[in-house]
Amino acid sequence: MLNLPRVRTLLSTLFVLAVTAGALAASSPPDLTAPGAIDTVDRKLTYNLGATGLRGWIHHRPATHFDGLQGRTTAASRQILVTHVGEESPADGVLKVDDVILGTGGERFIDDARKSFALAIQDAEKEANGGLLRLTVWRAGKTAQVELKLRVMGTYRETAPYDCPKSQLIFDQACRVLEQESLDAGIWGAINGLALMATGKPEYLPQVRELARKIGPRTLRITPHMGSWHLGYCTLFLSEYYLLTRDDEVFPALEQYTLAIAKGQGMYGTFGHGLVPPGPDGELHGSVPPYGPVNATGLVANLAIVMGNKCGVRHAVIDPAIERASNFFGYFVDKGSIPYGEHEPWPHHENNGKNAMAAVFFAVQGNRLAETHYFARMCTAAYKDRESGHTGQGFSYLWGVLGANAGGPRAAAAFFNQAAWHLDLVRRSDGSFTYDGGEQYGPGSTDDDTYFGKSSYYGLSPTATYVLAYSLPLKTLHITGKDANQANWLSDEDVAEAIAAGRFDLERNTMSASDLVAALGNWSPIVRGWAAEELAGRPDAAALAAGLMALAEGQNVRVAQGACETLGRMKHAEALPVFIRLLSHEDRWLRFKAAGALRNMGGEARPVVREMLQAVAQTAEPIEPIVWDDPVQLTHGQLAAALFRPPLANTLLETDRELLYPAVRTIARNADGMARATLRNFFENRLTVEDVRALGPDIFAAVKTPSPADTMFANEIRMGGFKALVKYNFKEGMQAGVILAKTQGGHGSESRTGEIMKELTRYGSAARDVLPELRELIDMFNLQVENRQFPGGELNERRVGAVEEAIKAIEAATEAPELRSITAAGSANATGRPSTRH
Asked: N or C, where is the chain less crowded by C-beta within 10 Å?
């Protein structure tokens, strides 16, 4: 696990996907030449300005959040404020801090100043221009032309980084920097070790061997505190090292690592920050505990299992683990990008490197052609998405080009060509690289506030990152193409279509309606979604409705998906019967699109509420065995959000209970914690006492047994169900509260425990029966701290204090409400566990 407080804090903060819908308030960039303007600039966050020796402040406020995600962070900028000048760099003695760069080549910036500056660097570094970079600079009220002398690097060939002298020169310089960097026996050292091996330079092998034997000593003992981040990257490093050297000294540790990861995999093939512990009876592969799955670490952990198996690690858990992961991540093919956890697909071509990780994961298996093709195409199309990511873009930079390369050298070169301006902007004059980035997108900084200062993504070396990228032609490692199955490689047509898909976010604005309709059948689900969004917003959209309804029920499933999404965005009421029919279509993703369309309809979907409720119950499937065509039943998640949140939730109690109750029971048993969470408010605030009595066994079961998937949200329905039982004084609410408190997981428990205890005290003296269990709860909390499963100090004190206060209040109570009891009737079995058969 990343052993950094800041990483833990950021990664423990829920990234709310709905933020993508909010537009940022656009702000005009300041005129830095105006009196006093440079004194108003916050210089904490800056951009590296290539091998010039400069860092600078650039206006970085995108017009919308979407623009930021699509790489248009600095689109409005037309000036650059110099904030750092590196000693003995090309800029030293030529430019000064507080200079304002107005343009290059004798012209003022008329476009994004950052990208324009990068392109000017590339132009200056050509042999024909001799490294001469001409700048228009404002200084203290005067404007002048100045010249910097950069090192001549040449020009990227179209095949770069393959067969490209400039790429080779950059690679050689970066290697000399990398060899001086430290190699700690953890995740970042493992990545540096991978980069050193990727160079193919035998002189680095002694360093690598020493690191391998630190990470994989014969005395290794895997402990629960070795999180999936550490285990995944260290196993990946050891695997590549073993395959390169056949050093038997590390094989026992490699075997331990691989088996620990495989045994700690969750039931859907995912991982959280840590491994999934064995169940009470020693059973493996349960749910990922709250905080829940984190695919940024899980994909690498699964790749490590594949690589360990490639090294010769054999065990009964290995093949099923690879199959589970392949099934889960393969589900996202033709639907979108790999999401944060066990969620619906991410609606952009990349999500901080997770598609690239998936591409490599499938590519190294060798026999997963459809999945490798899809994710390699998505990576190739994602050149605009490189600079965005939750907690920053470090993994995007690390994995992005490796993912495109899974589709072969042509795909890698196409991606590289589009990203080359940025690669030259983050390269420094000493051959090292910087990391500039922050939450979602934005600039960066160096640790000592100098041009040459250390710069990283929480410790990830940017130089190691780019050494891996520039090492692709060598194919030294499996993650960089060694022994690649060329059947995985994309055709020229595939590559061209991927690059075109990456431009579609802007090109759609000028396309005709007929061209947009044609784009509904694009290979890229992201393009299909953008086309639907654009079509639905056109003034003449209503005239297209009849044709779109026909397409939604046509033979071309991709077109049907896009047409369905368009009609939902249009809120076209006449399409409601179409959506209802599509809820049972054989294509699961078309079902999802139909459900999403009904969700988008909002209150306009009232005429078909009965049919929606029926569809929920009629299409339900058991949690186990997992149906990999829709492992967490995302269609039901869309329907649940449509039905059980306003405005439709306001009228549901007017619906026949014989339709409502089966739908409620189905959603309460859904595999997905987020889908179940839609019932929280409905349980807590909308049900009558008779509803709670009728649904009581199902409500109690939902509290007792958390959702197996997406456990990040598992406690929402549990809290709502618990409060529903308390609200009407059902005696089962007391036991439900104790169960919830004991099984809630650590994440957020410092606040949630107090909420649970407050509800329990409403039972007054009747709650004395659970006092022994509350005292056990205190012991359990303290033991979690001892076992390093939860932080001590103020957070645990809040939990323990809340329970102690509840105990005092219950002991002091002299009255109790009249208690009710739920019946044994309903859909729950005698143990209180929800049935998995429908």
From this structure: C
Specify whether the CB–CB gap between 765 and 816 falls below 8 A: yes
Look up residue 83 and give its DSSP letter: E
Q: Rounded CA gap, 338 and 644, in Å?
A: 27
Burial class (CB in 10 A: 0-12, 13-18, 19+), 84: buried
* Chain Cα centroid distance, residue 779: 36
Q: Provide the residue type at 781 as one letter.
A: F
How far is 680 from 725, CA to CA, in rounded Å? 12
- Hey, what are 404's tokens? 């495109």
Residue 432: closest CA among 470, 473, 464, 474? 464
3-state secondary structure of 332: coil
User: Can you tell me the distance from the alpha carbon of 33 to that of 101, in angstroms, rounded to the nearest whole number?
Assistant: 10
Single-letter residue type at 519:
A
Helical segments of 264-408, H only:
295-311, 318-330, 354-365, 369-380, 394-405
The amino acid that residue 457 corresponds to is Y
Q: Tokens 């694009």 belong to which residue?
A: 522
Give the mean pLDDT of 8-21. 35
In the block, residue with structure tokens 């699961």: 588
Residue 224 pLDDT class (50, 70, 90 cuts): confident
The per-residue pLDDT for range 337-395, each reduced to its tens digit, is 999 999 999 999 999 999 999 999 999 999 999 999 999 999 999 999 999 999 999 99
- d(CA 152, CA 29) in angstroms, rounded, equals 33
Q: Choose among 593, 603, 527, 600: nearest CA to 564.
A: 593
Indicate the DSSP class of residue 85: E
* Alpha carbon distance 354, 295 (integer Å): 7
CB atoms within 10 A of CB 448: 10
- 80-85/54-57 β-pairing: antiparallel
C-alpha 390/C-alpha 293 separation (Å) is 15
Q: Give residue 225's pLDDT.
A: 82
- Return the closest-CA partner of residue 118 out of 158, 163, 71: 71
Number of helices (H), then strands (E), belonging to the chain: the values are 33, 7
Instruction: Identify the DSSP state of 444.
Output: B
Could you tell me how far CA 87 lies from the centroid of its own chain? 39
Per the DSSP assignment, residues forming a β-bridge with 337 are 346
**760 neighbors 770 (Cβ within 8 angstroms):** yes
SS (H, E, C) 97-151: CCCEEEEECCEECCCCHHHHHHHHHHHHCCHHHCCEEEEEEEECCEEEEEEEECC
